[in-house]
Design a protein that fits this description.
435 residues; 24% helix; eight-stranded antiparallel sheet; alpha+beta; 10 helices
Amino acid sequence: MEENYGDPGEDDDVYKRMVDNIAGAGQVHPLGHTHGYSAALGYAILARIMEVIDGKRWDAIMKDRLFDPLGLTSTTTRREHADQNRAATGYLIRSLEEGPILSPLGHLPRSFGPGGNVNTTARDLLTMAYVFLDEGKAPNGTRIVSPGIIREMTESRVPIPDPYMFGPEWALGLIVCDWHGQTVYAHDGSAVSQSARLRILPESNIAVSMLANAGPRDSFYRKVFNEILADLGTVTIPDLPEPDPTLALDLSRYEGSYERPGTRYEVAAEGGKLHLRFTLNPMEAQLLNKPEQLEYELFPISETHFLMPSDDPLEDPQTVAIYDFENGAAQYLHLNCRVNPKVNEKGATMHVMAVSTITDNDGFWDSLKKAYGQLPKGAKWTLAVASTDATKAVNVIVHDSIDGVRSFFEDHAGPFATTEYFEADASNAIGLPTT
């Protein structure tokens, strides 16, 4: 289902609110049809199930059933409980010339709690990993779960459409990797300016973790882990596959727009080559000092998989899957473990200019950030700009009608501005696509 849960707030009932808010969420794909990772919503649903079963808040359940029995003294689920003298400050690296800068985002919203707000250390993370190496027991001998539960967590699996970036299968909370014939379990976590990596090698009885206050950088993780693993005399991380220059593909089968709330990819064939364009949230583009649209060339590995290198020295190559053909056309794009279904562009043809007189600057832009992630299918946000005195703003949205944009915009930004709406002439506009 779509991760369209609105703003559930920061109160103790946050996960109940998230579940309540998705009652009308759209279905991304049929049940069991393909795989898509859901960092915020998926884990929030699991947290809410725990709360209903145990009758107490998720934060308390984690402490009582996992952290305390494991003896974890440096692990919490709330930022206010973390030791600020030990907490790593997050940094962004926008260019090699500029170097690291302090991240303006100090923490994620509470809605990301189960999927990204656990504060821990590399040592505590390895203590949790030990449970998988000793059939459910903690290093102190405490039984955390049964051996049967460990088997279920590792053996209950679904295939991942892109097997190269992380692994070919997903178990219960664990990515299943194949490193030169050896099974390795993994899980990663990345937020703005923070990243975590965990690898569990049961055949070698080894677990390796890495926490970093910048990134993520796949090349850095590979270099560090491979050096450690080689010193330990065990298997190392396989390289990404090389493109196959002999493949002759019908590129039209892959063309189209693919999106999920807040993220949009456009795949187009130009000059006999396939290109992927990624439209950034305007605020994210400003934060990272990047253009609002990034473009990559896709090099075929197979009929459904592509290597996606970058010209940016701060970006590592990735792989992407474009797959599940229907009437000769791909239906899904799978990147970074997220699934993005193809969009039916029919109806989203009108460029509407929203000219706002702002009455609450912080409220206005905060509401637009949330609105960006909740655009209706097929709609596009092509421009967001404010006057230097922050009293005026112009936004251009491609939708099916002026009324459609008005309804969407007023629902989110109405309390913070007075807005007029006009149809824009896209063919004469600079920087806007023609219809």
